[in-house]
Amino acid sequence: MSQVKATRRLILKSSLAVGLGAASTAAATFAQANPQTQIPTTWDESTDILIVGSGFAGLAAAAAAAREGSKVIILEKMPTIGGNSIIDAGDMCAVGTPQQKEKNVKDSPELLAADMMRNGLFLNDPKKVKFVSEHAHDNYEWLVNEIGVEFMPVVGFTGGHSVPRAVTAKNGSGSGIINPLADYLAKQGIKPRIRNYVETIYRDDSGRVVGLKVREGYRFPKEGSGKVKNIQARKAVILCHGGFGADVKYRSLLDPKLTEIFLTTNQPGATAEMWREAARIGGMIIQADWIQCTPWNNPLEKGMGNTWNFGQYVAGEAGVWVNTLGKRFVNENANRKIRADAILVEQGKGLKAIAVANKAASASLEGRRPGFMEKSVKDGLIKEYPTLDALAADWKMPPEALKETVSQINTYFEEGKDPQFGRIVKGLKPMKEGPWYAMEMSPKVHHCMGGLATTVDGKVLDVSTLEPIPGLYAAGEATGGTHGAVRMGTNAILDCLVNGRAAGKAAATQN
Q1: Per-residue b or e along 318-330, where b marks 16 or more CB atoms closer than 10 Å to that residue's CB
Q2: Choosing from 165, 336, 339, 487, which is the catalytic residue?
Q3: What percent of the chain has pLDDT over 70?
Q4: Is 9 a catalytic residue?
Q5: Tens digit of pLDDT for each residue in 306-342?
Q6: Which residues contact 110 (CB under 8 A, 6 or more apart)?
Q7: What are the residues facing 89 on neighbouring strands?
Q8: CA 169 → CA 151, 267, 449, distances in Å?
Q9: What is the pLDDT of residue 37?
Q10: 296-442 to CATH, choices 3.90.700.10, 1.50.10.20, 3.40.50.20, 3.40.50.720
């Protein structure tokens, strides 16, 4: 047996043992510490399906449930809809699209699934991976033909994928998907209720989830604000509340290095109260300490910003990443964890990670983000230089080392092979002439790979029985198992939409 296979088997065996032990402990703790919540004798309002969260997963779940004839209410604690989804860059993983066919990209659900499992370190649930990958094409078709989403005629390459799969909403933002979904639902009389904070999940004596205690008129982050209202869910509650990337206290308990020193790409409402409440009523949470940091964010910008596009789609696709010694240190198109960890190692040495490319390399991005480079340079977020010597001097790099690195990567582009880090470089053009561009990159907390354990159709599992909790479903970043250790770029939208629709349909039909 090879050392790699032996190590992998040992890791899987150890993880299983730890997971089963943790489940038993959690079940015992829940039984001792969580007496039954008093169910209201009368309800202020009733509906078939109650959905928590108005991002990709929540709106997709609502669309699917409404299609099955269910009455739906969507609750959103923030003053606007969309959560992290609406500030997303609008890049979605899809298979078999016209954009891929135009570029003669050979792809398949099986190849996508293999990429997901490999990047997830085989901690993914294979059934979930198969389900998501098999629906990567019909999800695209549903968005275009039924919801009315418009995508750009280009296809991009993002970290962890073995072929280009990223299609981008026409307006270059997650709002290009959220807004058409919201319009689609509005035509059916469904409008997300903003400023509605979920305080309690009601689970009755039979073990069924029957409704929610909500604070209507909530003012984030003011605890106790809003008027209490009890809403009954005749069929089901669907949790689509997303992750906790902005909750420093919660995330640092799971991953102690992720203190307030780390910025986040998330909107301020990405906090953990629904994670805690779902756990309180017995929802099993898995792999919650697998928290993803993005590698390519600009430390000069708050949140996600915009210039990460340069790090990913310009320097990551057609340029080079170097440290301030002028040397490459990672595969520029590896998955996010590999690249973020590599940058953290360089920072630990007192070095910075710099994305470098020339004007020609930025051409593909201009097709997705017109005027992006000009604006970013004007705003001082990306720097422009006439020569590599000028670039090196500004970043205090040894100029000869930088020029040698650029010459080396150009050779790899010409030969179509990267023997140094194994990057996919076929079809890339050497960077010969300026102007040159550079930007510092620093990791930010981005995505929670773990979450509630669910069946393929979104039923939440009980930690004490490992069976579905009647009346409780979940989808999107609130759940675990789809991505394993690493979520590949553009896979969040795919995950949320596919699994949101599955949970909505299952909840409405009680499959």
Answers
A1: bbbbbbbbbbbbb
A2: 336
A3: 93
A4: no
A5: 999 999 999 999 999 999 999 999 999 999 999 999 9
A6: 133
A7: none
A8: 4, 20, 24
A9: 78
A10: 3.90.700.10
